[in-house]
Amino acid sequence: MKIGDVVIDPPVVLAPMAGITNHAFRLICRQLGAGAVWTEMISSFAIRYRNKRTFSMFDWTDTERPVAVQIFGGDPDAMALGAQVVESAGADIVDINLGCPVPKVRKTGAGSALMDDLDTARKVMAAVVGAVKVPVTVKTRIGPHGELTTAVDMARIAEDVGIVAVSVHGRTVEQRYTGNADWDIIAQVKGAVSIPVIGNGDARTPQDVRRMLEQTGCDAVMIGRAALGNPWLFKRSAHYLSTGELLPEPTLEERAETAREHLMMIVELHGESRAIREMRGQLSWYAKGLPCAAQHRRRVTEATTIEEMERVLVEMCMPRETDPHYSQEGE
Ligand SMILES: Cc1cc2nc3c(=O)[nH]c(=O)nc-3n(C[C@H](O)[C@H](O)[C@H](O)COP(=O)(O)O)c2cc1C
What we know:
Elements lengths: L1 E2 L2 E2 L4 E3 L8 H9 L5 E2 L3 E2 H5 L3 H4 L11 E6 L3 H13 L4 E6 L4 H4 L11 H14 L4 E8 L7 H11 L3 E8 L10 H10 L4 E4 L5 H11 L3 E4 L8 H12 L8 H19 L1 H16 L5 H10 L3 H11 L7 H6 L2
Parallel strand pairs: 3-11, 4-6, 5-6, 6-7, 7-8, 8-9, 9-10, 10-11
Antiparallel strand pairs: 1-2
Helix pairs in contact: 4-6, 6-7, 7-8, 9-10, 11-12, 11-14, 12-13, 12-14, 13-14
Bound molecules: flavin mononucleotide (FMN).
């Protein structure tokens, strides 16, 4: 599938996740088969006011292309400027956040607040499309709440103003991350527009990815939470889509090696203390489902040096009988 002239292959992509989809994680996901990766959302106001911390989020490199850089804001001029700045910093695609349910974001008229105000949403989209040469996409939810689904209207407006693809997370704003994603509305959006539609919400396995493509007719599937500690899901999904064969889960060694690579990439990019802070969460996800996961998670949380974290990783991939923490503490 293509977003503008950007080829997305395979049609399985990494969702934007604030605080998570930074360069290291995006690169790991690309290396393990994601067709494209989304950055976390970046504030157009913070870009306008040249906030230093915000510019540290401009961390994409050639190694991870194609990369969609997501921006948010409710002011068309600020969004146009934000889009130009991320384009000149090398974004392959500019994505507009039209779904963030966080009150702090909504209060500024951004994110999902634009789902309550389709006129302003149109202005924001048109301003961004007019400001850059790279393809512009949007990511939205199915509607503000159960009685009001606006995704079809939003997608029609998007197509009308020159947006080239729309991602739909199958939950309402009110639901935030609870309940199940409604894939029927994703199918309705697909039926209503001729631009590519990316389905999102609750794709957790290669079989889910195929089911979402088949049930909704969407052009690609976007994966968020299921990729945490499990970036192999992209490769396994792509393989399943093209052959119908389910690859085995990664071995303990593969898990530990990828987690170690992830850790070292953050050390190299940001230094030890940030790597330790960031990897506490990430390594807990990598440990999920392993023998002694709870013990490994606790030890990772308590680790204060890279050496300690590496030691946990080595032990994480030991078979259960040789793991000293298993025999001492049980599962
Ligand atoms: C921790 C976290 C941060 C997120 N940050 C963003 C974001 O910055 N922009 C966005 O459009 N969606 C964001 N989302 C929503 C995801 O992109 C995705 O739509 C949602 O998790 C549903 O997909 P999933 O079921 O595959 O996780 C975030 C979700 C989580 C869990």
